[in-house]
Amino acid sequence: MTFDRKIEDAGLERGVSRLTPERIENTLKQVIEGEAGAKLKLYAETCMRCGMCSEACHYYMSHEGDPSYSPAGKVHQTLGKILRKNYKVTAEEIYEMAQIAYTECNLCRRCVHFCPLGIDTGYIMSMVRRMCHKLGVTPQYIQDTAHSHSATMNQMWLKDDEWPDTLQWQEDEARDEMPNLRIPLDKEGADIYYSVIAPEPKFRTQLIYQAAYIFNEAGVDFTMPTEPGWDNSDMCMFTGDFEMMGRLKKRHFESALDLKVKRIVMGECGHAFRSIYDQGNRWDAWEMYPIEVVHSVEFFWELFEAGKIKLREKFKEPITIHDPCNIIRGRGLMEQSRKLAHALCENVVEMTPNLEHNYCCAAGGGVINCGPPFKNVRMKGNKIKAEQLKATGVNTILAPCHNCHGGLEDLNHYYELGMDIKFFGDLIYELMEKPE
Amino acid sequence: MNSVYAFVVGPLAWFAWGVFIFGSAYRLVSMYQLAKAKDGSSLHYMSFKYGFRSIMAWLNPVGTLGWQRNPWTAMVTFVFHICLVIVPIFLLGHVVLWDQFFGISWPTLPDTIADIMSILVVVCCIFFGARRFLQKDVAFLTTGKDWVALVIPAFVFLTGVLSYHEIGDAKVMLILHILCGELMLISIPFTRLSHAVFGLFTRAYIGSEFGGVRRCKDW
User: Fold this and answer.
1) pTM for this one?
2) Which numeric CATH code is attached to A150-303?
3) Closest partner CB to B202 (pick from A54, A118, A277)
4) Which residues are within 8 A (CB) of A15 and not within 5 positions of it... i.e. 6 or more apart?
5) Minimal Cβ distance to A51: which of B138, B199, B219
6) To pair with B38 at 20 to 30 A between CA atoms, which of A73, A380, A425, B133?
């Protein structure tokens, strides 16, 4: 079957224009034989090509069973092809592989639940991206965020002064509502170091406002850092630039250790969580993060259990809850997210399938970050999610992950679902008791 | 013909078993060395508890999402593998050989049962083969290596059944059957059949990662 869905992307085109057959062969060999090890080899060898994983993938399900979208089908067209052709693939084939690996797989790992041999297609796709990165063939938009990481240590080209300025702006705004509110900067020894991803100061500042409000109301001893390292996001993990991924994680943890805080609490993000418990820590040869990291979902539930957040009222309308791969399939927060959802809402309607078997948003894994050229890949490739959302019959979705938000918002418009999407922070801020 | 028979059950059998045992051991040891050199973090996460938990979950043909969503394939896969392992070990004709060469023996299956199980293996192979032709997503993935992995066990059991029922020249069929069996032994370490050697480890690894790091089940 020929690849008939090539999408023009300036980054991919520029990348392949600089390839030579020798460079392709040497680079692919270097990654597969030099960098990767037994895991990749075993996955390539023991996969029995049984096709049981096909149905796991939202792309496959949304494309009416087009075999080129099945998890094993994507491996077949990338790593499989490289090995079958003994590393002698053309520049055009590298383009196709990059398009598949960066935009047609969200690394969500739903397919792991389908494979009797436990083959991790997410890992294989990460390694294909790694090869593409080393060949310099990456989609332009996500590569731009990776460049931003390298130059500024944050994802969104925020300048050093813009970050504290944004925090102080939000503090100022929030003081209209709560006159004594503070966002303590660089406070040594605070209980909590609150870390966010750079898109928050860039275009979701309301989330910083809300978190500050909730923490102040709950009496949390928290601080936010002003120095680079504050951004916990990690697009380099998704482009395959693992060296930068390692640097970013080190810088982030050093910033928290410098402030001698007790714990890091991170905003409602999925991929940043993945980068500290799954990929970044491994690259840096840490079994787990060197300082405890708590996801907002866990932290909010902690505050609830301790009676530090009191609600004025519960959310009355029926609401459904989306399980982001990186916090549920990635880190088992299904119990806390359910407890929190039920504490906040009167009527939580579950999706089918749900929990660790939930369908992906199709935005994560860096796919949404590949930008406008690939937006329709996500939209057409996730009809199944739109159907799943519609079947709940409710108008509101709870989604504790930025990427899921972006993806679900786009699906919502594309399929005209008329649904509203909320973070836990949105609901807590909206429903909590506030001083008169 | 008798000397050919003596050769295939004698020196050739020693050779096939040798390749199978030492080949498998070599592949396991060298893969472990490679994992130690390159996949340190993954080896570090290996956990007996979660690995075992995962293997047990996947031994239940209706216990995992993958099996549940592919019920026919699940059923055939289980029947195929159970028969594939049980029949060669407990077939009377095989135990007799062990007794004859090494003086050891163990309980055997009634011949009729073993015969039915062997026919089932062949039927399962036909099912797998048909899937490779007819099911679009499987056909897309199929390469020569997958046919090799399917045809070898199919021939072992087909020749076994024909030989038991004395269809065709009995001696020739028996020799063919032994040759196919030996080919299968030799193939296990070096073809897709190597999942017999590595499968438990890949399963245990992902079980360990999901259980220990991801705090989530992998089924």
Assistant:
1) 0.96
2) 3.40.50
3) A118
4) A94, A95, A98, A132, A135, A136, A137, A138
5) B138
6) A73
